[in-house]
């Protein structure tokens, strides 16, 4: 048995070996046949609908939190809807088999929702899920879900929706391998947050047979398929145990999965560059020792809601994080919705180009009540905690917007206010921004997307989204220099800060803190500790002077 | 009987609201129909149909039923904010 080597982009560091299992495709409709017994066909469809409604209802009962349970209840009500049944019965009597009737009727409702736009269009996905489940039921196939092979495994997929990725259980999913995606896709970001080694944009990933042992190296982007001599060689670097034929074993490189112990960011000559955590909830801080939180994304709190959550629910979520970070800094980013993260209660109409539309702070143009409620909840939780709480807004484009946001925050009782730099318009006016707000935080992912006009989900344009692109470095340098002139902090909270070589360059540019997935902190801490501030500056100058990403990377490493 | 009612919920007749209204309508002994002015009536006890009315907050909807008490109950559910 020979091993096959595939290459992709390393998107979340660490290496893991285990059996590959593919995310199931939705069930396919068989070729239609004439209906001979319409009553039996209607029964088949109704039985499938009932089973789905029952199953979803049971999951709603079993859900721990009220919002998940509420979403599932609405979904169960949709499945049990009588117009749906009537429509399906009619379609069957018009000559369609049960699964085809189900797909056709749900397809009509789906088109109606899509045509209605925004708010309702978001529900089309729910109908798709319903269709897949009921069609599977009609065909006697298992319901679509993440694979459950009964042992830890490597998840193989085209790409993961943020919702799928958010549900990944690191105890079961050893690594993720996708054929699409890029370093800054949500699959990658959520995998990094969970410390799950991930390789994206890997051609050939979908050809791997279920159960085949694969080694996914999320640091180098190498994927070894099958067991044999070469596997041992590849694994030699990480000291992994190789699978024995016939019994695939799951072995994880312990070093990559262990959460960091107390690591303080400081250069060899003692210049502090705090290393902070990017998190989405208090759960990600469990067992982690960090200097603080540099980016607390609040979207997850809003994600599974039909309406924006109230003050009490939000306050509890913020308080949990503040409690875990007592005495330490926590930067809360206000809701970053829109674009690739639509929320049902926010999108009122379809935008031709959502990435350039109402997203981030711009949502407040329409719904400032959501922002006000959020600030009230943050301020209230902050008052009861010793954590040093600051807030920042996403997608701030003008100084006026920054000033307006700062005023709202200060009115709410939150004195420390920042703005994210995600668009070139903000970067080139960094100095003026720092007259309106107390600090800046550069989001390198979106800054790349907007500077290079390259969709962050595009695997094909991954080279343009490389954080070592000189134009991106120049914009970060502008921000850092503005911070030094104004005597105010300028941090980087994009995923690029997790690259140890890049972190050295950022420190050299004058960036005052780096925020990343907790699992990345030890490696970055080690890189900083190996360089003096002058060496970091030399690396930064070398990278800035380079003509392209490869040269910039090489120049930084020479220091 | 026909009554007019204005959608009260800030998010409109959206998923949770539609499910709530449909549950109320399903508990009524007499069927209630809902339509936009000039639109086709849909059964008030169908979540899916209520959703496809695409009715944001402030939309005026017309309710029709043979029973004034059923009408009243559903109108209350739709008008509640």
Give a brief description.
With 559 residues, chain A is an alpha/beta fold.
Topology:
The complex is a heterodimer of chains A (559) and B (81).
Chain A: E1 4-7, E2 9-12, E3 15-22, H1 38-62, H2 66-79, H3 82-93, H4 98-116, H5 118-121, H6 124-138, E4 153-157, H7 162-166, E5 173-178, H8 186-194, E6 198-200, E7 213-217, E8 222-225, H9 229-236, E9 251-252, H10 254-257, E10 275-279, E11 293-297, H11 299-303, H12 311-324, E12 329-333, H13 368-383, E13 388-393, H14 399-412, E14 417-421, H15 424-427, H16 430-436, E15 439-442, H17 444-452, H18 470-486, E16 490-492, H19 500-509, E17 513-516, H20 521-529, H21 533-545, H22 549-558
Parallel strand pairs in A: 3-4, 4-5, 5-6, 10-11, 10-17, 11-12, 12-13, 13-14, 14-15, 15-16, 16-17
Antiparallel strand pairs in A: 1-8, 2-6, 3-7, 3-9, 7-8
Chain B: E1 2-6, H1 15-27, E2 32-36, E3 42-43, H2 47-52, E4 60-65, H3 68-79
Antiparallel strand pairs in B: 1-4, 2-3, 2-4
Describe the structure.
The complex is a heterodimer of chains A (559) and B (81). Chain A is an alpha/beta fold and 559 residues long. Helices cover 43% and strands 14% of the residues of chain A. Chain A has 22 helices and 17 strands. In chain A, strands 1, 2, 3, 4, 5, 6, 7, 8 and 9 form a nine-stranded mixed beta sheet that branches. Chain A has an eight-stranded parallel barrel with strand order 10-11-12-13-14-15-16-17, surrounded by six helices. In chain A, a hairpin with a 4-residue loop joins strand 7 (213-217) and strand 8 (222-225). In chain A, helix 12 (311-324) packs across helix 13 (368-383) and helix 21 runs antiparallel to helix 22 (549-558). Chain A is globular. Chain B is α+β, with helices and mostly antiparallel strands and 81 residues long. Chain B contains three helices and four strands, in the order E-H-E-E-H-E-H. Chain B has helices spanning 15-27, 47-52, 68-79; strands at 2-6, 32-36, 42-43, 60-65. In chain B, strands 1-4-2-3 form a four-stranded antiparallel beta sheet, covered by helices on one side. Chain B is globular. The termini of chain B are far apart. Classes of the chains: A alpha/beta (559), B alpha+beta (81).
